[in-house]
Amino acid sequence: PDWAFAAVEKQLAASQRASDPLMEGMGVSTLSWILLRQGRWEQAQAVSVRKAEALEPSFSRSTAAQYAVYGNLLVSAATPAARRGDRGDAKQFLNMAEAAAVRSGPVRVYGTAFSVPDVKTQQVNIALAGEEPQPGEALSLARAVDLGAISRPVHAASHRVDVAQAQYQTG
Length: 171
Description:
mainly alpha
């Protein structure tokens, strides 16, 4: 059996029983990550976009958690878009995710962290994705990342690897 799918199915079922659409959104984000790791990029993007559209927050009435889950789903959609070579969609998703991060402020919710610096690290990652990586753009974007403000050590480490990769690719 596919243990990752079994785990996310249980998470999604629990969130539905709890009538918690935000928990379900984070479950869909996890599902998107699983699909991404399996190379099922179109499906990974589609599930994230569908759930992000369903949870799109009201500008004036939403909570930080609502913005954070929405933003995480957009980040989940951006990565497979970039891997498929669709940088336009990837950049649009990350632009909307950054707007959500501005509205939410730094927040930890549903087992994840979400903030503007976290989105900016993903912009660097996206510049390196796909068949035509853009290491120069990645390095330019990396200059806007405040390493001390990255909310989770794993995000900071991943960002450092991306920057090192971009430096290597530019010689």
